[in-house]
Amino acid sequence: MITRTVSTRREARPEPPVTAAWLERVATHYLDRYGASSEMLRRVLLRRVERRCRSRDEDPGAQAGLIDETVARAQRAGLVDDARFAAARLRGLRRRGTSTRQAQARLAAKGIDAETIAATLAEEREGAEGAEAGEPDTEERAARAYARRRRLGPYRRPGTREANRERDLAAMARAGFSYGLAKSVIGGEAEEDDPSFGEE
To answer: Which secondary structure element, helix H or strand E, spans residue 133, and what is its range?
Structure first.
């Protein structure tokens, strides 16, 4: 008896073409879920376009104009604001104990341009200048937060602090803090969490 094998495998149908309306839906869905810089949105749209164009055997480069238009519309609508994003991200980084040097690098990695980063840090400094006398500056507060989070210096278990002093100083240096500040924090006393740090 001869049996005939019937293939149940269907040809994969290509996805619909890239359109302005589809890109806008992708952008809106992404921005509803995440805060983003203009460059982050552009990267997401580019990845989605590349995937769709691959399924259609098309050149994704032909859609660059549509991607630019979609990002520009999101900016005009206020859905994307690099200065606002940078300020919010910087506050979050500072709460986690990120140094100025590392904060600059991380903001740049998110596609924030150097001018916006400089302006954001300048605004942060201006805000710190308005703090009460005797309050530690932003970099010092970040250094303390970093030491607390990593259990360095005064946050180590009793009896282990001095033996780990050089290691802790090296960790602070790798995190981007100056030697003088690292030495002050590692040699200082443990402090209570400051819940106001980073709040608007």
So the answer is: none
pTM assigned to the model: 0.79
Which DSSP symbol is given to 187? H
In this structure, the answer to whether residues 72 and 100 fall within a common structural domain is no
Give Cα separations from 71 to 47, 79, 80, 103 (angstroms). 14, 9, 8, 25
85, 200, 88, 193: which is closest to 141 by C-alpha? 193
| Residues spanned by the domain of 64 | 20-77
| Nearest-angstrom CA–CA distance, 196 and 29 | 32
Specify the number of domains making up the chain.
3
pLDDT, averaged per 10 consecutive residues of the chain (200 residues), comes to 50 79 96 95 96 88 93 96 96 95 97 97 83 69 95 94 96 96 94 47
